[in-house]
Amino acid sequence: MYLTNEEEKALEGEFGEALEKAMRILVAIGDVYGAERLIKISSAHISGVSYKTIGDAGLDFLQDLASLGAKVLVKTTLNPCGMDPIKWRSLGIIDEDFAKKQMKIIESYTRMGVEPTLTCTPYYISNVPKYGEDIAWAESSAVIYANSVIGAKTNREGAPSALAAAIVGKTPMYGYHLEENRIGTEKIIVKMDLEDPADYGALGIYVARMNVKVPYFVLDGKALNLSIYVKYLGAALAAEGSVAMMHIEGFTPEWNKYKHEFSDKIIVEKDDIKEIFEEKSCEDEEDLIALGCPHLSVEELRDLLKYRPKRTTWISIGMDMYKAHRDLVNELERRGYIIAKGTCFVVSPIEKKFKVTATNSGKASKYLPSFCKQCVILRRTKDLLVISDENSC
Ligand code: F3S
Q1: pTM over 0.90, yes/no
Q2: N or C terminus: which one in the chain shows less Cβ crowding within 10 Å?
Q3: Cβ of residue 363 lying under 6 Å from some atom of ligand 1
């Protein structure tokens, strides 16, 4: 990969060990993927935050890097961590040691200048890229959203490469930064209505299993709340497959920018999706209802006022959403919802307390069995909650 004089000096350690380490990561990746050069980024978003997933090795790595004086050069936000940083005790699954180490992880990131937003939907409030901008984001659900719905350009970064890019302010130019890799590769005709996050998620799982690369959707049925629920489609595609970009005809900003080259045409009907729901239907009754994967938007939070929980119900949101809408959050808590802010039911150790989780998220239904040993149920929102008799506002 071509490097400028400055980049060569950074790689040789002339500007300090932290920058050298970050450059080494970027150059190794750039060489593997045949990148021509590095390009500037406008923002980064980092995963690898939960102590449950990165453990002591991850904590040591971050503490070392922070001690070397590493600082991010661009706006950089952080994915959810393993607990609600404010009321972790009351959720009843975190011990003192976990909490201490989790706080040290967050502290190491903030020492480097990373904003502790603790959300997987940074695009709502704290990190909103513009169309066409190059960025370096980890968190697969945010990556596919940024590429597809915003029209920013990012690869599916891992935690170290997103952090390295944030420190250098650049990323190797390959993959989804290049227009030729953003062209639709399979045409997906959806001949059914999409009315709930669970429908979008089940569709994503079904399509990802066809090994698609850049699916191009034609929605032939009703697509309720597409602008709000599209994240559930992307998150499921990215979790079940390795999809980082999709197009939706007439909706996503690049759907008519390219001459798409379809290698396949796939028709999806109601019965196909029914199979996904049947597969994810644990026979035991749920002891946890989990909403907010990916983290909820303010519209979704408001919508929940129409319902009330019928059993323990976690709602996951980012710290930025919590700070921006405290009154709404307080009202939802008053109505019996448990607001798990800055975390989620996948990256926190819910297996210490729960065995069966029902969710409306396709992505969560994929990860809950493996990451949290849960017997899982994928179900539509209205079937997880009950209609509230209180005035919704
Ligand atoms: Fe976000 Fe956790 Fe789901 S990080 S996308 S809520 S698994």
Answers
A1: yes
A2: C
A3: yes
